[in-house]
Amino acid sequence: MTHKHIQSVRGMKDYLPEEIKLWQKIEKIIIQILHSYGYNEIRLPIVEPTNLFYRVIGQLTDVVEKEMYTFDDRQGESLTLRPEGTSGCVRAGIESGLLYNQEQRWWYYGPMFRRERPQKGRYRQFHQIGVESFGLSGANIEVELIMLASRWWRRLGIMDNLQLELNTLGSFDSRQRYRTSLVTFLKKHLSFLDVDSIRRIDSNPLRILESKNQQVQMILREAPLLSEYLDQESQEHFSKLCNVLDKMNINYIINPFLVRGLDYYNSTVFEWVSYDLGSQGTVCAGGRYDQLVKELGGYTTPAVGFAMGMERLVLIVKAINSQWSSLVNHDKIDIYLVSSPHVKREALILAEQIRDYMPQIKLRTHLGSGNFKKQFSYANKYGARIALILGAVEVEHHRVIIKILHTGEQKIVDQKEVPNFVSQLLV
Ligand code: ATP
Ligand code: MG
């Protein structure tokens, strides 16, 4: 009988320990910057009632129409693996009462699920770090969010590889008026549209503006512009945003075709795009969604946020900043504890004592088989600077041998003295 290996689900990757070192380094910088702006973490369920996404994202979007992992639980309730984080944030905010009459600045981090065709930078399980702010309606909070993300890019050394694109969708009413005239225009030019665009004409026509099809792009140059339909308030809001960004020396372009895929946005929308990732170029994207809290049953609450895709960010950091990957390989341990076969238990005890005294130290205990020579080769492999050697004689006298690996120098010391010696050696 042959056994087939069980493989991971298509589009859902493993993140192996070597890869995770780079992730952790990036996560640390990102989270430190979030904290420095006073944003608080919120952790939310991975599974939500399917209805939540129908109502928030919109029934006629790609995500809801084609991409969700939806299943019935044993009582027949329809549940969905979250395809994005804003829905859960808003649900939780309303449910907890934390959005009522107060200002919140939150971030979340975790896996999201969309059943898309897997490609480089596009997976069925991927990770987003998202930032959401509730209770602030002015352009200033948008500036703050843009500054925060820009600070990420600067600290990660990829600022020059990302372009900030901005647009404004206007109010709900102005968007409806624009939508009508766009649909009229598109219906006059049906023969230029591809299948996807035709499918979207009645359901989600604004999304056609983001089409990558060249013929569609060509005809769109003649199409009415959203900016011509904007209400005055949105126009003023948007020019205030641009003014402040100019003053703060933030580079951006206005992309009149940027509309975002999800239904809930109004007013300002923005994206950071890398031209190195092909059609998976959007690394981070968001916008304002002032109607959503009310639509989900809360009180009217202005809100704005964005989500950043970690897999795409890691791809860029790896491509741009090669020293990062090598820095990660230098993640060495300090001490390797070598011991003879009969004193493994004593080795474990000694290791615990050292960790009690020196909580920061990275110490790895050799617990497998192998003579001293083999054990030393492991010490080198893990980059240890010091080896501690424990044999039956040392155990009997409560001693241990300290060996400085790069000089070969060694010394017999009392076990109690180890923290003292080690801290001198590792300065
Ligand atoms: P795209 O146009 O590339 O499909 P999107 O508009 O669907 O992106 P959002 O819903 O705005 O993306 O999600 C925010 C970010 O999450 C994206 O900019 C991207 O970095 C990341 N992201 C979205 N979908 C995926 C995916 N399937 N795999 C990896 N990252 C993703
Ligand atoms: Mg998408």
Short description:
The chain is built from 16 helices and 16 strands. By secondary structure, it is an alpha+beta fold. The strands form three sheets. It has an eight-stranded mixed beta sheet.
Structure description:
This protein is α+β, with helices and mostly antiparallel strands. 40% of the residues lie in helices and 20% in strands. The protein is built from 16 helices and 16 strands. The radius of gyration is 28 Å and the shape is elongated. The structure holds adenosine-5'-triphosphate (ATP) and magnesium ion (MG). Adenosine-5'-triphosphate is lined by residues 84, 114, 116, 121-123, 126, 128, 261, 280, 282-285, 307, 309, 311-312.
Record keyword descriptors for this entry.
427 residues; alpha+beta; eight-stranded mixed beta sheet; five-stranded mixed beta sheet; 16 helices; 16 strands; 20% strand; elongated; binds adenosine-5'-triphosphate; binds magnesium ion
Helix content: 40-55%
What sort of overall outline do the alpha carbons produce when their principal axes are compared?
Answer: elongated
Quaternary structure type? single chain
Rg over alpha carbons:
28 Å
- Portion in strands: 15-25%
Q: Which compounds are bound in this model? A: adenosine-5'-triphosphate, magnesium ion
Widest beta sheet: strand line-up: 1-5-6-11-10-9-7-8
Number of strands: 16
Low-confidence stretches: none
Instruction: Profile the largest sheet.
Output: 8 strands, mixed
Distance between the termini: 58 Å
Average pLDDT, to the nearest integer?
Answer: 93
Task: Supply the helix-strand structural class.
Answer: alpha+beta
Number of helices: 16
